[in-house]
Amino acid sequence: AFYLPGIAPHDYKIGEKVDLQVNSLTPSLNAENKLESVLSYSYYDERFHFCRPQGGPKAAHESLGSILFGDRIYNSVFDLEMLKDSSCQMLCAQTIPGKDAAFINDKIMKGYNYNWLIDGLPAATVKIEDRLKKEFYSLGFELGSQVAGQIVPHFYNHYDITVQYHTVDSVHHRVVGVIVTPQSKNSVYSPDTTPSCDTTEPMNLHEDKDNQVVFTYSVKWEKSEKSWATRWDAYLHAMDPKIHWFSLINSVVIVVSLSAMLGLILVRTLHKDIARYNADDAEDLQEDFGWKLVHGDVFRPPQSFEYLSVIVGSGFQLFWMVLITL
Asked: Greatest CA separation found in the chain?
């Protein structure tokens, strides 16, 4: 037997390790609500200098749909244990040269996002919809931020991870939500001391010199009444229901227009054939022509129809299986 993440619930015990997986960094709308790039980058691209697990990152098993969507999922160095809160845990300290700092700053200004997964759920940020003033989960979270008038953007190197869990019984618990609040902290670190997350000075990557960056995180477990079966409801949020009505009406108009065009072509073709059959020319009546020539092919049984039936039936089953899996 095997387990597909997200298909069946995974029950965790207190203190059991909960894996945090990392996915590719993807572009989104920048501060000006413009999409400036369509390329995604691997999380462990050397230019980002993110902390790597011991022995190197290992790729996770992905479905065909996940691969076609461009997901590249790997393990990470984050250490999460069920119902075990932690604060200001150090991941690693990296030195980012000016050339790579320019690369990261460019991706921040283009609105690139982190994409993490915990128990098959994507890490999200809580945002408020402008029209209805309702909270919803936005997939992923920003690589950094840029304040208006600021030349160098802030790089997010500290992550406050809130994991929502649902208690099944006194022993087992399930993950039902993941919220990440990234922060930019210029933490000071030396081998003899532990980093402090109390600093309010943001982390700016300077492009003319090397930058020492300390990556840290905190974990908070939050009990939720949300069940495992409804944990995706917060992610499936429609920004504006009018958009769906517009798409539906647009599809109906297209289908009706194409059907009308096809019907008009068939009517004109049949009209010509019927007019010819009604003619008084007896020689023409003895010879089939037009669409009547098709009946000889339609009603002729194919060779080895037993094998054809098996192949068509198996292909139909495989088609729907692949479609549902994607």
From this structure: 108
- Among candidates 2, 22, 7, which has minimal Cα distance to 325? 7
Please, which residues have CB within 8 angstroms of residue 44's CB and are 6 or more apart in sequence?
22, 50, 52, 57, 74
What's the CA gap between 163 and 179, in Å, rounded? 6
Nearest of 159, 21, 158, 164 to residue 83 by alpha carbon: 164
CA distance 205 to 213: 9
| Phi and psi based region of residue 3 (left: phi greater than 0; alpha: psi -120 to 50; beta: remaining) | beta
Q: Is the pLDDT of residue 233 over 60?
A: yes
Task: In whole angstroms, give the CA distance from residue 160 to residue 143.
Answer: 14
pLDDT in tens, 73-106: 999 999 999 999 999 999 999 999 999 999 999 9
Residue 317: phi and psi, rounded to 5, are -65, -45
State how far the Cα of 187 lies from the Cα of 195, in Å rounded to an integer. Answer: 6
CB–CB of 94/49 below 8 Å? yes
Handedness of CA 89, 92, 98, 104 (dihedral sign): negative
3-state secondary structure 14-77: CCCEECEEECCEECCCCCCCCCCCCCCECCCCCCCCCCCCCCCCCECCCCHHHHHCCCCCECCC
Contacts with 160 (C-beta within 8 Å, 6 or more apart), sequence order: 180, 181, 182, 183, 217, 218, 220
Question: Distances in Å between the alpha carbon of 88 and those of 158, 193, 251?
Answer: 8, 13, 52
- Asked whether 115 and 24 are in contact (CB, 8 A), the reply is yes
pTM metric for this prediction: 0.71
Asked if 147 and 204 count as a contact pair (C-beta separation under 8 A), the reply is: no
Instruction: Work out the burial of residue 132: count CB atoms within 10 Å of its CB; fewer than 13 is exposed, 13-18 middle, 19 or more buried.
Output: exposed
More confident residue, 88 or 290: 88
Cα 128 from Cα 103, distance rounded (Å):
30
